[in-house]
Queue: 2 jobs
Job 1
Amino acid sequence: MERFEYASPGSRKEAVSLLAGEWGQTEVLAGGTDLVSSMKDRAVTPKRVVSLKKVSDLGGIRNSGKELRIGAMTTLRELIENQHVKRNHPALLESADYIRSEQLRNMGTIGGELLQRPRCWYFRLGYGLLAQDNGKPLVPDGDNRYHAILGNSGPAYFVSPSMMAPILIALGARVELYSAGGTREIALEKLYQTPTLANEREHTLHPNEILTEIIVPHPAKGSHSAVYEVRQKEAMDWPLSAAAVVLEMNGGSVSKAHVVLGHVAPVPWPSPEAEQALEGKAISEETADAAGKAAVSKATPLSMNGYKVQLTRVAVKRALLQAAQGGA
Amino acid sequence: MAETNCKYEWPAAGDRHLIGTRISRIDGPAKASGRAKYTLDVNLPGMLFGKCLRSPYAHVKITAVDTSAAEKMPGVKAVRVIQGPGKEIQWAGDEIVEVAAASEEAAEDAVRAVKVEYQQLPFLVNEADFDKDKSAGRTKPAAELKVGDADKAFADPEVVSYEGEYGIPVMVHCCLEPHGHVVEWVGPQSIRTFSSTQGVSAVPGQFAEALSIPANNVETICRYIGGGFGSKFQMDRWGLSTAQLAKDAKKPVKYLLDRDAELEVAGCRPSGFVKVKVGAKKDGTLVAWQSDCWGTGGPSPSGVLPIPYVLDIPNRTRRHTFILTNIGPARAWRAPNHPQAAALTMTAVDDLAAKLNMDPLQMLMKNADLASENRGKVYKEELQKAAELSEWSKYWHPRGDKASGHIKRGLGVSMHTWGGRGHNSNCQITIQPDGSVTAELGSQDLGTGTRTVIAIVAAETLGLPVEAVTVKIGDSHYPYDGPSGGSTTVGGVSASTRRASVDALQQVLAAVAPGLGVPADQLVAVGGKIQAKGDASKSISWKQACRKLGVKSVQTHGKNPGQCSLGSSGVGGVGVADVSVDTETGQVKINRMVAVQDCGLIIDLKTAESQCYGALIMGVSYGLFEEKLMDNATGRMLNPNMEFYKIAGIGDVGELKVHMMTGPGYDERGVIGLGEPPVISPGAAISNAVANAIGVRVPNLPFTPDKVLAALAKGGMA
Amino acid sequence: MKKEKLRSRKKEEGNEGFNRRDFLKGAGVAVSGGILAGETQAVAQAAEETSGVQGPGETPVTLRVNGETKHLNIEPRVTLLDALRDRLDTTGAKRVCDRATCGACTMLVDDRPVYGCTVLAIEAQGHEVTTIEHFSQGGKLHPMMQAFVDHDAQQCGFCTPGFVMACIAFLKTHHNPTLEDVEKGLGGNLCRCGTYEGIRHAVLQAAKTMTAEKEGGLANG
């Protein structure tokens, strides 16, 4: 790890004032499991680390009656134990349950989970987010078994690592961002972007801006949701592919579907193809499979990750069937 | 077989009070409480921390090294160029410069300040494609094995043959405690090393030779070691540089590898890929084998895989080609070459059984007599036991689970062999007049239970409880003992300890015989007492007995090998896997794993069983997850971490069943090693179970979803 | 970081010179993104004066470890695990993966299990750090440790302290666990020798012992 200055501001105002206006100079520290690891890998080498632990108004979960407002520094453990979350968003619990490490759940925050950096091994080995060696892209001809099958026309090939973003996006979550200029609120989906330049990041947060709150609307009456991850290990492991679904129902049929894929693209990947395939239909093995098929209809697998197309199709199907069975 | 009437022979079954029972490991409390001090935990006054600059390239020539900036960094006390200009680096991660500084952070900064220039050379880091290996000029054939006439046997119209391709990739040891040492100079020509090593008695000689100091001036200490699995026999290049830095800086230096280096350079199990043709008569009798095998263990040739494995098929031809690659160098991995051989043999036999519409367990049963050393009878007993434990007749079915749905269940079997003869060992037993007993051996406990075994043998011999014996190992100042490799430790230390303890007891008996009025040869030590054989009324407590020694302590020395045989060699075992495969996702889940194993006379059943449980778990891990992934673009290891070098977690291993073959027919063989054999079969058994479940062979381990789906797409039942 | 003169600056993830003034310039970059320049600079300056930026050199850090107060002078980049192991000779927690994966460094912070390898020591200030050493004080083994011994839930023992800590923490939230609970709840620790069979039994045994002790009033939690 490179040396860095450490700051632990007491307010959000102070926090953003300590952040530099361009990427690479400063990093925000939340739970630390990802940032400290990436600093050890030298995937990031900030000159200053700004901890948000002492910023008092970044924690807690509030229920406004129509939505939950989750402070970005809320730990995953706090999220899991929260009564409002349990009552309104069991799919979030399901998602957190896949993070099969009590230590990570105690340390990790919801904000950090959403903004963790990609696990792409080229990135972690120091070849940058776009995985280039002297300008030559390493992923297309390299070992891309865990890389993107959608949104992968380059130069970014990594997959978005967040395990909770897909379900939160499917639930229509928004995020509140804070900078010296004030507060802005955007759809969580808009927090993510596919970088095209080496000095861009995979999210749209400004370098001197912090994520302060995640706002999750209460589900529409009678809606169902579920998360399905395909992973190798039962113990803590990264998904090979994941799907999150929220179904708004009109009697026995789907009036509106929200299908978001995880670990298949540089961003959490909403699938309008799958959503359209479902609308007006009752969920059955056939319609769920058709939606899975639609979800990957535009997949463009790389040399070694064709299997992820199949996994994604199945993840969508199973998430839908799980949701339809009352699911989460 | 033990000679009769030898004073050292193991007690008869009825006279054993401790041997063969389940006894908790004596260093369990130290480990469970975190008090056990490993090499990584050694902190000496004034100690410096080492860090190493390693090559980021797989194959380069070093043209320049500039350490001047590093030397001026704050806290830096010494810098050593390990491989300088002109040296050719053969794998990424190889050592270039080591520094010693006052803190780990300062050492890390200094390493970053070293400037190295390289000249790039062509590299090869993946060997599975034999044609590419050939065109890269990286092949080197080994001597061919030819027994009988395979061609002629295959030509027999009565012979049914099967041709298949199988593979098992390079994997790493991933010892949780990394390789490395703490070295301090205790005199101008003397050092003390704290080393994470499998060879406490062997390491001093390596340091002495490299440093040109007398071997007796080197003391090596390893009280606890956090895993070795065959990879920790050497001082290693970084051991020498750590000693040199300690000399330069005049302070102790600690250097153990960081995790990435540990996975890149300190452990590599050679791969094996094979094209096999195997033939049998229609009744399943194996008659012919022909194989073309290739694999890599880094830049030098590694072992030839012993295939066909276990089964000495009468007509067999084996060709093996070493592929010389730019990956880290090979190190022995728990039963070197055997897990690969099982994975390349038992799979082919299983496929042939399927072609013959035979139950593969019956096929192994039928051919068990092809095993060397007339071990067919043992294998048959073990196959029978494994069939019972796995409920084989209930769960096995012909290829392809016909149940509806996407979860397919299957069973697979494999068998294995190992030597395990006890190594050279020396044990010194000291009995003090106050009754205290100490056993000293220059051995080490890898977690197999060596300490416990020594205590049990001494205690059994002296008629004492296990707690009455103090075991001192892990220091080269104790009598020489062999390195812990090849499952040789238990046979060595148990025999030397037995001999030393018997001799020590005789002296105690001689001292108390006059007082009891019973000849020494009519006395026995049992239950904390010395008493007349068959007459408990004539007895004296152990403590009182030892007081008769007066001021003299008893000190005896036992050796292995030595008088009368206390152990032998050659064990067998059977592994069964029961898996479920999700044919939609290619995920393989373990339902149950079974190990049936013989190892002669078992000293401690509890730690013996633990070896088998652990071997099953490690087998699941390499069967499903493990592979050293090397990148063709950069020449580097892509997964030098524990996130993507995946090892099984607690929820991944299924239900485990272990059965140790003991009793008549086994016990009289004496003690034989156990650490390695049960890890051999699981990979092959899992492969066969997957094939049984989905009706198609997935050729290469580990069974990750991509490979399983690819096999299903080719011809399975997806 | 010393306030050396700015030399060069890379665009992304730059390593080179960087000082307080650069932060302000950096803040200026964001200004073009629509933030009021005057306010930003004022805030930044105010923060500079009050936030107590520490390091990158050594700085005083006070830790509470197993009930004792420890004063250290360390750089902010030093992890809690390294502070304990390298500076306080508290070596029960092991450094293995060093990336929040294997659990060998598991310790409790305010009674919750964490990976010490990815907690900055400076961040642990004001919290109670409990390591495995705490649970065998006076030589008496914690029931979980005893269960590990009884079920031979250890071989080389290097993952063991981390596992014991994870198991102790696990039983605080699972008083009567099933085997499935155990397997799910301990997914954040890895063993290489393969001691999971013993660990599964040990946790189930310790759950019983500890419940019995509680019911018998022998322990108070």
Job 2
Amino acid sequence: MSNLDFSLALFGTSLLAGFLGAMTGLGGGVVIVPALCLLFKVDLHYALGASLVSVIATSSGAAAAYVREGYSNIRIGMFLEVATTLGALLGAYLTAKVSGNWIGVIFGVVLLYSAYTSLRQGHAKPADHPPDPLAVRLNLRGSYPVDGHKEAYVAEHVPAAFGIMFGAGALSGLLGIGSGAVKVLAMDQAMKLPFKVSTTTSNFMIGVTAAASAGIYLSRGYILPGLAMPVMLGVLVGSLVGSRFLAGAKVRTIRWAFVAVVVALGIEMIYNGATGRL
Amino acid sequence: MANNNQPSASPASNPDQRLEGAMGRMLQIGVTIAALVVLAGGILYLEQSPGPRPDYHAFHGAPAGLITVHGILAGLGRLDAASIIAFGILLLIATPICRVVFGVVGFALLKDKFYAAVSALVLTILLYSFFARR
């Protein structure tokens, strides 16, 4: 295969991953690493580098649309970024210490978890009790638009959410992904924030978290320009187009199909890791 | 840190949302410039490297000139295609870091000392990850 054909194949695959990832809310990053390793026979660490770069591009690229909606909370985001960036330092440090096969197994488990969360419909409802004094002191609250008026919310379980965010950052640094599913877990399930606030705030945090690992990836030589170029451009364009197709009847079918792909890739990553092929 | 969140305020008059809007525009401009630089470097790269696909199966690490900011800037001066792509990637990484700088300045302007300090802490962690030698 010529270099041009190879780059075009990478671009096309990344375009599709970005499109489906944005449309289903799973993020394109989760399928880039398995696609590069399993389909294109790329070394795991090079795949992590290309994926991490595309994750930063997607997060920043989606920002404009999210800001317009007015759901994201910059204070909650910035506060939790202390945890995610520290976690990302640990995760990126561990990529050189943990064997590729173990990274593959962990990756597979995260893929399966992401697939599970994308299908779970019920979201946590805020309990009817006085607001968490710690959240009030840290000003972890805000309001969001509901049917034309603003509804106020206050975060709950702040220490637990901070801990989960450290874990989300570590997974992001270890696996070269945005780990949006774990970030939403901390904000939706632990802090009990409105779902739209969780997902949009998570999007902003993904870029900052990934930037904390990117310096380490770069200095370790994980980021190959020739490989990262088609992947980053493909995922970016795909996700910008995909985010315009969020609603609609056909989305349900496509979501199920994409989730099936994610599950298959997750099982294959676990299998390849467990049998020492990564 | 107690001068925000008036539920009745309209979006345009809410200083928090103005800060958020400025951050969003900055991210959009940053990612656009970065993508154009990567695209330009990519076209040059494909023109200069027409051979068979590189073998990425075994890990050797990126070339020494592409793993430091200094090396990438030096390659940029020679108009080396891989260095141009790498420079675009550096711009891309700088974009969310810039957003945190906006946070430090923005919260300071809003007289929210606590969140200006939180933003400064995140910025310190990011700069540490970039410039600490391992």
